[in-house]
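Title: Comparing notes on inverse folding

I've been comparing how different people in this forum approach sequence design from structure. To keep things fair, I'm posting one structure and asking everyone to reply with a full sequence. Here's the target:
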């Protein structure tokens, strides 16, 4: 029996405010190429990519889940992204 591969694209709940909307983060815990391919299939513009994730507006959350993104908490998303070595935090100045 063939076992399905675990989904590596994750999405957190759209709770992040910005520009009058709520946003989710769409990430991969496998590789960025997979993330870019998933985002392209979802129709997310490249300008939505920021270092290690795509920002996705709340109204697209259900579309991402329907396409196969795994809903996770924000904490789980960051944990898995960091464990995969793909986390690219903002550089802080100060």
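Reply #1:
Here's my take.
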């Amino acid at each position: 029996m063939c076992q399905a591969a675990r989904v590596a694209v994750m999405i957190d709940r759209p709770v992040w405010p910005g520009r009058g909307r709520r946003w989710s983060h769409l990430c991969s815990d496998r590789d960025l190429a997979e993330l870019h391919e998933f985002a392209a299939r979802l129709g997310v513009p490249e300008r939505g990519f920021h270092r290690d994730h795509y920002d996705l507006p709340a109204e697209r959350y259900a579309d991402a889940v329907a396409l196969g993104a795994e809903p996770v908490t924000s904490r789980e998303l960051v944990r898995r992204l960091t464990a995969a070595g793909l986390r690219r935090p903002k550089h802080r100045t100060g």
